[in-house]
Design goal:
Shape: globular
Helix content: 10-25%
Oligomer: single chain
Radius of gyration: 19 Å
Number of helices: 9
CATH topology of the largest domain: Quinone Oxidoreductase, Chain A, domain 1
Structural class: alpha/beta
Length: 334
């Protein structure tokens, strides 16, 4: 088959479109003929060697590596012990995450083997591009906001992450036009929250259309300078600057940083009775089946920034590196 692989860590230029072995099925797996692949930050974290992580957390990678987790396609073959799916079914998945952090997911390819437990039927009301844009971003938003869906230990904090009730609450989403952010806006609104979206002003029309009640253009004003007494902040950008959102919360409020590394406000949060909590998204076919109904009826939709054919994965990564992506970038497979 054809796949995009890299043989060393580096920038987008290390990605090569080349021949690669088609994955062999093992027990409990389904072989999917891929039609579309969603891009996510772990794709370039892996390509760069996870250099932002402490060395002891960096997974051991064996080259060559096929990056990627999010796929939508058609069932091509099924292991004998799998009874849930049939050849020809349209399906989508976030494949082996985080168990495939070292590159075992193999998403940027014409074929991918997927554990049946991580697979779900593609919502019939959307195409493969829209479906491939969903899994990691939507599961992240879902597991942070609606249902964690697993009891695996959190490597980033000692306590289990717990979503908070959203109905009637005031929720702010930072990075609201991005991959996770635009879906978090929709889920919070679906659950009855008053949603304040923080994004570039160019995204106002889109975010209004997705259900945001208020928009803060971060280019004109800092949200922490104008907002107070929030129940929850979802920081879909994360990093060291997340601490600034503590001043926007009411006492007892919650801050959910999607990317928590670098956060240094734990003492301040504890002193003010605030909860700062994160989790690591995990593959979950059952949740994708459940969420698929919301995608199918239009309650939730994925926004597509741009698409690239699989041989142009390098250009897609270069586009992602420039930032300010509206929704998701998707690779397509002929």
């Amino acid at each position: 088959m054809k796949a995009v692989r890299f043989h060393e860590f580096g920038g987008p230029e290390v990605l090569r479109y080349e021949e690669a072995p088609r994955p062999a099925l093992t027990a409990g797996e389904v072989l999917v003929r891929v039609h579309a692949i969603g891009l996510n930050p772990p794709d370039w974290y892996l390509r760069e060697g996870y250099k932002m992580l402490p060395q002891e957390w960096q997974p051991k990678v064996s080259f060559p590596v096929v990056p990627g987790t999010d796929i939508s396609g058609v069932v091509h073959a099924i292991a004998e012990d799998v009874g849930k799916f049939s050849i020809g079914d349209e399906v989508y998945s976030m494949v082996r995450f985080p168990s495939g952090l070292a590159g075992e997911s193999r998403g940027y390819a014409e074929y991918v083997s997927v554990p049946a437990s991580e697979l779900a039927r593609k919502p019939s009301g959307i195409d493969h591009v829209s479906a491939a844009a969903a899994p990691m971003s939507l599961l992240t938003a879902w597991q942070f906001l609606i249902e964690l869906g697993h009891n695996e230990p959190n490597p980033l904090q000692p306590n289990r992450h717990e979503p908070v009730p959203l109905a009637g609450k005031t929720v702010m989403v930072n990075g609201a036009a991005g991959g996770v952010g635009h879906l978090a806006v929709q889920l919070a609104k679906w659950k009855g929250a008053h949603v304040i979206a923080v994004a570039s002003g160019k995204n106002e029309t889109l975010l209004r259309d997705l259900g945001a009640d208020e928009i803060i253009d971060y280019g004109k004003q800092a949200p922490e300078g104008v907002v107070r007494d929030l129940d929850l902040v979802i920081d879909a950008v994360g990093g060291p600057e997340t601490e600034r959102f503590l001043r926007t919360l009411k006492r007892g409020g919650s801050l959910f940083p999607i990317f928590p590394l670098g956060f240094a406000g734990a003492d301040e949060a504890a002193a003010r009775g605030m909860t700062v909590s994160t989790t690591q998204v995990r593959s979950n076919g059952a949740q994708l089946e459940q969420i698929g109904r919301l995608l199918d009826d239009g309650t939730i939709r994925t926004v597509i920034d741009s698409t690239y054919p699989l041989p142009e994965a390098r250009q897609a990564h270069e586009k992602a590196a420039k930032g300010h992506i509206q929704g998701k970038i998707v690779l397509t497979v002929e």
